[in-house]
Amino acid sequence: MNKDEILAKFSxxxxxxxxxxxxxxxxxxxxxxxxxxxxxxxxxxxRHACPDHSDDTYSFIGNxxxxxxxxxxxxWKQVESFFVKNGHTSISRYPVVCRWRDDLYxxxxxxxxxxxxxxxxxxxxxxxxxxxxxxxxxxxKDIENVGVTGRxxxxxxxxxxxxIPNNKGYWKDECVDLDFRxxxxxxxxxxxxxxxxxxxxxxxxxxxxxxEYYVRGLELGNAVFTEFQGELGNHTTLDQKxxxxxxxxxxxxxxxxxxxxxxxxxxxxxxxxLFQKIGIDTxxxxxxxxxxxxxxxxxxxxxLSQVRKAAIKASNLSENHLSKMITPLEGLYMIADHxxxxxxxxxxxxxxxxxxxxxxxxxxxxxxxxxxxxxGLKLDLDELIDAHIDYLKHTxxxxxxxxxxxxxxxxxxxxxxxESKSRMEKIAQNLKAQKKTLNVDDMIRLYESDGVTPDxxxxxxxxxxxxxxxxxxxxxLHQSEKKKATEEFDLAGIADTDxxxxxxxxPKFDAKVLKVIKGKFVILDKTSxxxxxxxxxxxxxxxxxxxxxxxTKHGNVVLHEIKGTAPKEGDxxxxxxxxxxxxxxxxxxxxxxxxxxxxxxxxGSWVWxxxxxxxxxxxxxxxxxxxxxxxxEVKKIENYANMIIQKNLPVTIQxxxxxxxxxxxxxxxYQGGVxxxxxxxxxxxxxxxxxxxxxxxxxxxxxxxxxxxxKTERIQDGVIRMEFVSGQAAIDFVQKQEGDVMxxxxxxxxxxxxLLKSFEHxxxxxxxxxxxxxxxxxxxxxxxxxxxxxxxxxxxPVKFYNIIEEELDDEFHIAVGDEAIKADPTLxxxxxxxxxxxxxxxxxxxxxxxxxxxxxxxxISSKLGGSGGGDARFGQxxxxxxxxxxxxxxxxxxxxxxxxxx
Length: 902
Fold this sequence. Notes:
Layout: H1 3-11, H2 14-17, H3 21-26, E1 29-32, E2 39-42, H4 72-85, E3 89-90, E4 115-118, E5 121-124, E6 131-138, E7 155-163, H5 172-186, E8 194-203, E9 206-215, E10 218-231, E11 234-248, H6 249-257, H7 263-266, H8 269-278, H9 284-297, H10 304-314, H11 319-347, H12 358-375, H13 381-392, H14 403-434, H15 440-450, H16 454-459, H17 470-477, E12 498-499, E13 508-517, E14 521-524, E15 526-527, E16 541-543, E17 546-554, E18 557-563, E19 572-577, H18 579-603, E20 609-614, E21 619-624, H19 631-647, E22 651-657, H20 658-665, E23 679-685, E24 689-692, E25 707-716, E26 719-726, H21 728-748, H22 755-791, E27 793-795, E28 798-805, H23 810-823, E29 827-835, E30 838-845, H24 853-863, E31 867-870, E32 874-879, H25 885-900
Parallel strand pairs: 3-6, 12-15, 28-29
Antiparallel strand pairs: 1-2, 2-8, 4-5, 6-7, 7-11, 8-9, 9-10, 10-11, 13-14, 13-19, 14-18, 16-17, 16-19, 17-18, 20-21, 21-26, 22-23, 23-24, 25-26, 27-28, 29-30, 30-32, 31-32
Helix pairs in contact: 4-6, 8-11, 9-10, 11-12, 11-13, 11-14, 12-14, 13-14, 18-19, 22-23, 24-25
């Protein structure tokens, strides 16, 4: 939707879209900007330009227009007090990790708190009307500006003033009146300083007029009146109109303090602590002039480096001022901002990683570390985290309980950064030596493959400036999640299926056939068959004597896929679910909840369910965690889970209105992802666990019998997988293990009491045998190498020896190949070692062989359906296609001949 077209339409009819009672009462005049022609409302008869083009833009720096002074936390208290006195409910911030939307990783605006996706529509659900909220928002599109411009943040507080215009809420007149009084009465701003600019907002298929309000060129807030839906000219009025007023708390503090930057008044004691650490000279007159120029020129130049150059010139800054004051200040401001962002994100359950939104968190942490290195700072991050939380906890008390977890995660990430520095340094040195010019895509590849940040490249003078588009492009790469394609069915006119598995859940029932699709998908008027969903596999059983092999839910209609003859539409038929299968799946589903919460209790608050799978034979749970699990951690999680089973806690299920569920239990309920329904089914295990879940569950934790974790692995950065069994499946697993142990005892000819000692003896004998084998290989390798050289094929200046081996292993051929190319530098030694259904590839190339071993391995591996590589001297790889062994060797010969022109 073209915003310019909407604005032109609305501005042409100001009486309809921008006529506000306050403007008439106070005598505001509507004017057109002499520069850009945008319309604005002002009490200043001398003003002829909009705030973006006025002479007084950012003139509040060093000269605040308010009669009162408030820092970040005090400014919120002032805002909150005003709105509460005027009938608003003050609610706590929502998490910065946006778990209630599957299209967003992070909360980017206060209105997002109350948006819920229902099918293709976005609906608004307010916990109170009207309300005000201090919502922390995260945005990573322009983090290269953070610390430099004086006003850009990666996390900021959006004051959300929201109202639905019904008998409790209000519409345009009341909203603008409140915002005007907030500025004049609470903050003591002269009304002649306030300018309202006409604008529009559009998104998610809806749009409306808006009024941005400015003081001395600083936009403090934007009142959006979301009123219409559809396309301009073919639009309709929304059933539920919304006021979405968003104001920057940082800017409210800044306008009252008049500091050179917004950072100076928004990080409390943190910036002062940083200044003292490095003894920086903060000459206020120089900084006021410089950052005022930065603010005024930011929109005038396409590139941030040009903005800085213009500000340096206009401020008459010397190189000494730049290196001793401006550059360190920019770094310190950025460190303070990025650390605050990490505190909020980690407290709300996000982890720095190489996937999803974790990319943004890892890169800002690495920016912190690169800046600390570049400026030669000695900072205690734990001390800075404490300072941030001590300051913020008065507004956000929940941060206090996550203090230790934040430090743990950040320290782990700092350690990883230091581990990668030597590799990054080699890459940077190599690029610098090559004098290579890097574009944005090159930099993204370097970060994605090797973790090299552009800040690090700048530190090493590989690049002079970080491209403006780098961070926004990187952010875009990891913001979209792929949706699985699902089969589409025409279900128009079919009544919703009565879901018996949420009621009395009879294992046997009779139902009427409403429709049969494609001869195998049966739709019934009611069903006890649980449909696949939330990671739980579907019920199987019989419909009219035919096997049910799959059950899926499309909207509110359940489709049963059968194998066999389909029943006739209109018939009433007998149905029966497989009770044993359902019982086992149900136990594994409740066990998933138990294991998830047990892991969180053992590992830390950052543990969230990433995905889950519940089948009759086992369960699988992927959770967010920074590292692979140790044996001790697995044991602790398993013990914790079984302690919950022994307590035999009740498992209760109750439906709540979605907003009520969120306010009552918090956003931990969204372990399984977004719930796209208004009535939320809450599964609660006493005070141990609570989740929004549509699956089937046992009545008490004691019904699970036993939980056994069978396997754990780190499946991707920041995500670990636990496979487990419970109930009968756990008993079967333990009994199988017992049987395996008994077989080992028999094989060793010992008994249970002496098993460990007998095993140690066997291992000692095995190690001794390996040593003897190595000695034997060493003694015979020289002879075998000579034989290989003698039997090698000669292609001009190169010799090629190859063998397909089915008896000796790779250790033998590594020893022989190494010896052979030492004896004859013109030799290429190639062994294809067949092990079961796989193939191991070993290649050595002498110094004069004219062919790199690694290159030859890649070629051979590709022919065998595998991969491999190496360097000039040695390469190794693998393959699977044993039918192509001779073809692969023929191909190798062809390449060698081609290379040496033989």
